[in-house]
Amino acid sequence: MNKFTRKMMLAIACIIAGCINVQAQYQLPNPGFEGTWKETTWGAIGKSTENVPQYWHSFGTAAGSLQSFTKASVSQSTDTRTGSGSCAKISATSPLGVVGNGTLTTGRMNAGSMTPTDETGNYNFTDLENEEYQQKFTGLPDSISFWVKSKMASSTEEARMAAILHDNFRYQDPTKDETILSHKIGSAELNYTTTNEQWVQKTVNFEYTQNATPSFLLLTFTTNKTAGGGSKEDVVYIDDIEFIYNSKLESLKIGGVAVDGFDKDTYNYTITGDGVVPTEDQIEAVSDGKGASITQSTNGNTITITVSGNDISINPENKHVYTLTFAKDLQVEKFAGIYNGSIDIDLSVMGAEPPVLTVPDQITIEKSEINELQLTLKNFSFIGLTLGDITVDKISVTENGSNYDINSKEPVTLSLMGGSIQASVSVSGTIQADGTTTATIDVDATGLGKIPVTFKGKKIEEGLRLNELAISGEANAITFDPNVFNYKSLDITSTDILTYTADPSLKVNISMDGNWIYLNVTDGDKANIYKLANADISKPIKAITVNQAIDGNLELSNGSEINGNATVSGTISYVKQIDGNAWNVIGLPFIPTVNAITDNTTVPAEADWYTYTNENGEYKPQSLSAVNNACIMKLKTYNEATALELISIAGSSIKGGELTITEGYNICPNNTLATQKLTDLITADTYYLFDQTAQVFNIVSEPSTATVAPSEMFIALKGNNPVATIVTPDVYEQGIENNGTIESAKVYSTNGNVFVQGYTGTVDIYLLNGGKVAQKEVSGNDMFRLEPNTYIIRTGTKATIVIVK
Questions:
Q1: How far, in Å, CA of 669 to CA of 660, rounded?
Q2: Residue 737: helix, strand or coil by DSSP?
Q3: Which DSSP letter does residue 798 get?
Q4: Does residue 16 sit in helix, strand or coil?
Q5: Rounded Cα distance, 731 and 339, in Å
Q6: Which end of the chain is more exposed for a tag (fewer CB within 10 A), N or C?
């Protein structure tokens, strides 16, 4: 703001307040000496001409018997600090050979004594009888500011400024008269040495002796603090006088206790404790302004304190507002720790596939301030880009029932990828009472756009760490850190070997879901989970090898497999997908407990359980009273089930004993938990695998390359003359029952021959999978041969299931 503008603003403020001839006065009417200047000529011995600014006075208008012998000391000068406008130049004089202090005052001078130091004859005063020589003033300023440039003959001499606020009394300065002094309300006085002809701003505080409203101001500038002191060459320039009214708090207490960290220039405070808002009479707010006013208001958990300067009526901007927010200390240090889970990276805006990428990850949460947290996601990467660490500070925490909401106060700007990418990052989410946390980390990166990242996980437990973790294979080299729970840059295959150690007091459960591997370190009901994932998201981990003892449980689902010969101290759980309305086969290295799994329920399975035995060199289904390690089954209830949970007893192995077979048809399990070649499991003359869709066992045409999946069983024949298909138990029994009369026709089979009796017409012959294999014309009683298999033979509108042996 330049000099002219500042002076204009002060002038406008004075006009608004009615500075001239009004009741309320807070600033001088001509503080920058830009108004009218009045020239006065006088003199008993030689004429003297003086040019004085409006509302100001000097020797030219002085009272007293010696006024005519004085000399001019004030003139208008353009030597301002800004180079524009005008200022007052005050010069010392030497009438009658005596140094006369140059003087400029808002009152009137009295020249009545030849002795310069005679306070009874030489002084300045407020003339109550003449408004020309009085400066009405009702403000209670805290300080006065003015600009000065001075030149003095001696560096030890001091010029003087005196501003005196007084009541309705003919006050004079200087004086030692106690009666006169008793009418002083406050004053600001300064003696100052030369400024070496440089403009310097001086600010002087007022000191008050009475708690009263003044009526007048007597302001005086002189070239020397001592009457008659100094040199006739002394000069003082004065400009831009301003009265300052403080409008801040000096101190703030609540219930007699100072607010922690209070600073008058800090306006917002969050006071944490029990969250109770104090009453207004408990707030002790003290202003730094003599005449400042303080108001309070309460809204919810917030108290607002407004401090208005004494000149608020003409300067409505002169106020400061302090806000006290009373918050419950949520003790957020309890949230500090590592949170382990996974992150979903929304790549839909980039047109990527899949639109949401889910990877195992962890975050670290620390306390930064009261009710504030800092969140760090280390080594953030996606679609092959490693962006680096993401750290967001000043995350506020608020209670929401039994949970806590977290939200960034403002986005944080981060430099990622070594500074090549700038990103704006913010955090929002929820920490549940049990420690489960959901945090959305919005990353708006230059060149990449918005990348919403959602973390879901739970705070890890103290202790419960692996001591060692390794996976064989060059692509799987890791630097293990017990506090790093996610290893996601791997390339695990079924032959890679997983090894790990933990303290003997801990259990380590292994779980595979067809995507990742989980090592769940447990102690009672507490657990921490380490996760392994392949770097290529299109290559989930389907299998791995474990040869060491598993001191915990083993869970496999979604087609997961585990090689090796490990013994599991806990239970083995294998989840097998099924058709709840059809026959399914089970083959395991253990006899399981079986549960049926629907969308919402897991219940003990009620089923028909069957095996196959030999009878006269042929196969025959045989009912079982309970599940076996190799059987065929069909649910009786919960036919909407989509999977079976097959659970071992404790202490089972992931690999069963060697399989053996006898002459005839043998039902055999895959006695491992991994896909195996049939010929590696057993040597037989003929192998049958179950066709889930056709619901029959078919001969395996290439046994040397055929495989059997975990949890599956197969049939091995030792001997000659194999049947082409082996049917499910219900089809077998239905075929035998239907080898009798259908209407008047009778269809049956003996020794490879099919007999049709009592029917004339076309006979259509089908396999169980619906494929038509032959058509015969018969008349009355007829016979024809078919290869060993199970057929559906249609005679007119009726069908008979026939087993040809």
A1: 11
A2: helix
A3: E
A4: helix
A5: 55
A6: N
pLDDT at site 376: 94
Cβ–Cβ < 8 Å for 111, 100: no
Q: CA 162, CA 168: separation in Å to the nearest integer? A: 18
Question: For residue 185, which amino acid is it?
Answer: I
**Local structure of residue 140 (DSSP, 8 states):** -
pLDDT of residue 15: 43
- pLDDT at residue 608, as a whole number: 96
* DSSP secondary structure string for all residues of 469-516: EEE-SGGG-----TT--EEEEE---TTPBEEEEE-TT-EEEEEE-SS-
CA 59 to chain centre: 72
What angle (nearest 5°) sits at the alpha carbon of residue 390, between those of residues 385 and 391? 175
What tokens does 331 get? 């003790």
> What is the DSSP-derived secondary structure letter of residue 176?
-
Nearest residue to 390 (alpha-carbon basis) of 341, 431, 424: 424
pLDDT at position 349 is 66
- Quote the tokens at residue 443: 């990353």
Looking at the chain, how many residues does it have?
Answer: 805
End-to-end CA distance of the chain: 112
Q: Is the dihedral of CA 171, 176, 177, 181 positive or negative?
A: positive
Enter the tokens of residue 495.
């032959």
Give the closest residue to 310 by CA, choosing from 326, 329, 292. 292
Res. 353 pLDDT band, cuts 50 70 90:
low
Helix (H) or strand (E) holding 10: helix 3-17
Give 662-676 as a DSSP string.
-SEEEEEE--BBS-E
Of 16, 14, 60, the C-alpha closest to 37 is 60
CA dist 441 → 150, 166, 332, 598, 761 (Å): 63, 65, 19, 35, 76
Among residues 163, 150, 321, the alpha carbon closest in space to that of 244 is found at 163
Tokens of 465: 């760490």
**Tokens linked to 733:** 């029994």
Three-state DSSP state, 55: coil
Q: If you count DSSP H runs as helices and E runs as strands, how many of each does the chain have, helices first?
A: 4, 63
